[in-house]
Design brief:
single chain, alpha+beta, Calcium-transporting ATPase, cytoplasmic transduction domain A, Calcium-transporting ATPase, cytoplasmic domain N, seven-stranded mixed beta sheet, six-stranded antiparallel beta sheet, 22 helices, binds adenosine-5'-diphosphate, binds magnesium ion
Length: about 625
């Protein structure tokens, strides 16, 4: 925190507080100097301005933004009114305690932001610099302007640069908030933060890391603040009706007895008395506890989740996840570890197995898919050197095409070869394991057989979700039906669909969504999962192995890739909602009590102030329980 902020946050309220206390003591001890009305006024007026100016400025700014009836206006009116009738210390106290409530809230928000930041930093940016004979992976800060970098399909562009490929399509939602794909042509600028979705591209950097398009981490957090939960939106709408109503009622309290005095001459109207009553009413009516504690509860929820390794991109998702009753899983990298091992290399005879492996590995070296990682590692351990492919395009859920030594190579699953009308032995489809097929110059050349295992916590995750009351599970995968059915059965899931193209995953989700009683969470990791992550009610991405596109499209990111955290997230969401409801009941209940007391004349301005501060602090502390929650 900068010095200026520190001053504003702590010093001014502290001075104001000391002045209030000395003032009250002086009056109590009948100090002569304080008998002078002007000195007394000046003393409290300074104490008031120290905390009140900020609030009054906020009130004025809201008025300028046409949001006239803000809580700031209510506070300003009530306190200025208190000064007007000579109740200086009350005016200072209301403003001061309100400010203290705000400080509490800001601290909690800051805390939550810090844990979110820490979470995001786990996944550092890397830039792949193209050198004369190899690629070098370095932190983007170390890349000079004018150097050439390579970005794989599904990865985020780390630095601003000019595109060297003919064209490529990008997902721009991190920068623009809209997920409309954008095509960029050769020599045009590609801003950092965009995700390339269909090619492996090369860029010539034009700015250093510090100057490259906005730090997206901050943006993610800021977006999180903007996406309000329904309860927060409700409070806003509520305030818009509530505040003017309260102001009108307060005016009526002051004016009606005055009118009554005309009708009943025995009734003597004392303006100060009724003005005071009107003010008490205004102060009591301040919805501080609600205004402060509800966003704070959601923030604490987001903060608590991030401590668990779960990043919520907005408080609305914290709320939405509590309603989920159907969980749809992707297979590879989500239910399975995504750590493949090569079991067998089968050549069709045109090239030998080593040549086949080298061809597949060369192309896969440009992919970020877990299959690709396994193949490339396998080759690297054996110190086999690879040729560098050209014109690489990747389609999520299918595989890659590229040029290698002038030959057209297709590497991927059977569906991909179908697309190019390349024949292959039909028996491959029946193999109950993941296979990667390869075609050279449109002629089938062989395949690799790979095995992957279920995540160790997959069973526990399903059990935990069951305990949360979720009984409906579905698996959607781009991998073979035989394999998908096999894994799903192990987990006791009956609805399992394999061999799905990315657009078929979308169709399946649409079918599920067409039943309005289904509230869907989709859990995925791949490039082919991005559309369904965006489409489902809550999209959950694997943040560790997952591709950047999936993380971008998701509403919730599980940094550790552990499935058990889905249930944790749901429980945290539910706990947060419970606290929010408690706070709403507590605040409104107490308001009604004090209001009734004020009407019959028992409660004074002081009780009103303390009730308001008290309930605000209680609500704040209640919200902070979420941060410490063990769910
Ligand atoms: P899931 O939908 O189960 O997560 P994937 O995202 O792994 O499946 O994609 C489905 C299938 O697409 C894979 O099983 C694989 O056959 C094929 N595939 C996707 N990317 C690649 C790649 N880089 N290399 C080879 N095959 C790929
Ligand atoms: Mg996957």
């Amino acid at each position: 925190m900068g010095l200026k902020n520190l001053l504003k946050t702590y010093l001014l309220p502290s001075v104001s507080f000391v002045m209030l206390i000395t003032g009250l003591t002086a009056s109590f001890a009948n100090v002569d100097l304080f008998e002078n009305q002007w000195i007394r006024f000046g003393w409290y007026f300074i104490a008031y301005l120290l905390v009140g100016l900020v609030v009054m400025r906020e009130a004025w700014e809201s008025v300028l933004e046409k949001d006239i009836f803000s809580e700031y206006l209510l506070m300003s009116l009530a306190t200025i009114g208190a000064f007007f009738i000579g109740e200086y210390p009350e005016g200072v106290a209301v403003m001061l305690f309100y400010t203290i409530g705000e400080i509490f809230q800001e601290k909690a928000v800051h805390h939550a932001k810090k844990s979110i930041d820490a979470l995001l930093a786990i996944r550092p940016d890397r830039a792949r610099v193209v050198t004369a004979d190899s690629l070098e992976s370095v932190p983007p800060e170390e890349v000079n302007i004018g150097e050439i970098i390579e970005v794989k399909t599904g990865e985020r562009v780390p630095l601003d640069g000019l595109l060297l490929n003919d064209s490529a399509t990008f997902n721009t939602s991190a920068l623009t908030g809209e997920s409309i794909p954008r095509e960029i042509k050769k020599e045009e600028e590609v801003p950092a933060g965009m995700i390339v979705t269909d090619h492996v591209i090369r860029l010539k950097t034009i700015r250093s890391y510090g100057q490259s398009a906005l730090s997206r981490i901050l943006e993610l957090v800021e977006n999180a603040v903007e996406r309000k939960a329904p309860a927060e939106q409700f409070i806003r709408k509520f305030a818009r009706i509530y505040t003017p109503t309260v102001i009108v009622l307060a005016l009526l309290i002051v004016c009606l007895p005055w009118l009554y005095a005309f009708l009943a001459p025995t009734f003597t109207y004392n303006f100060n008395d009724w003005f005071y009553k009107g003010l008490v009413f205004l102060v009591i009516s301040c919805p501080c506890a609600l205004v402060i504690s509800i966003p704070l509860s959601y923030f604490s929820g987001i903060g608590a989740a991030s401590k668990e390794g779960v990043l919520f991109k907005g408080s609305n998702y914290l709320e939405a996840i509590t309603h989920v009753n159907t969980v749809v899983f992707d297979k590879t990298g989500t239910l399975t570890q995504g750590i493949f091992e090569i079991q067998e290399i089968v050549s069709a005879g045109t090239v030998d197995t080593i040549e086949l492996l080298k061809t597949i590995a060369a192309v896969e070296s440009k992919s970020t898919h877990p299959i690709a990682k396994a193949i490339v590692d396998y080759v690297r351990i054996q110190n086999i050197s690879l040729a560098i492919p050209d014109r690489i395009a990747e389609t999520g859920g299918l595989g890659l095409t590229a040029e290698l030594n002038g030959k057209k190579i297709v590497v991927g699953n059977a569906e991909l070869l179908d697309r190019y009308e390349i024949d292959y032995p039909a028996t491959i489809r029946a193999i109950p394991e993941t296979t990667v097929l390869c075609a050279i110059e449109n002629v089938y050349a062989g395949y690799l057989r790979l095995a992957d295992a279920l995540k160790t916590d997959a069973h526990d995750a399903i059990t935990a979700l069951n305990k949360c009351g979720i009984k409906n599970f579905v698996v959607l995968s781009g991998d073979k039906q035989a394999l998908v059915t096999h894994l799903a059965t192990k987990l006791g899931i009956t609805q399992a669909y394999g061999g799905l193209l990315p657009e078929e995953k979308v169709k399946q989700i649409e079918i599920l969504k067409s039943n309005p009683s289904n509230i869907l969470a989709f859990v995925g990791d791949g490039i082919n999962d991005a559309p369904v992550l965006a489409l489902s009610d809550v999209g959950i991405a694997m943040g560790g192995l997952g591709s950047e596109v999936a993380i971008e499209a998701a509403d919730v990111v599980i940094q550790t890739d552990r499935l058990i955290k889905i249930a944790t997230a749901i429980r945290l969401g539910r706990f947060t909602r419970r606290i929010v409801i408690q706070n709403i009941c507590m605040a409104i209940g107490l308001k009604i009590l004090i209001l009734s007391l004020a009407v019959i004349g028992i409660a004074s301005l002081w009780e009103a102030v303390f009730a308001d501060v008290g309930v605000t602090l209680l609500a704040v502390m209640n919200s902070l329980r979420i941060l410490k929650a063990k769910v």
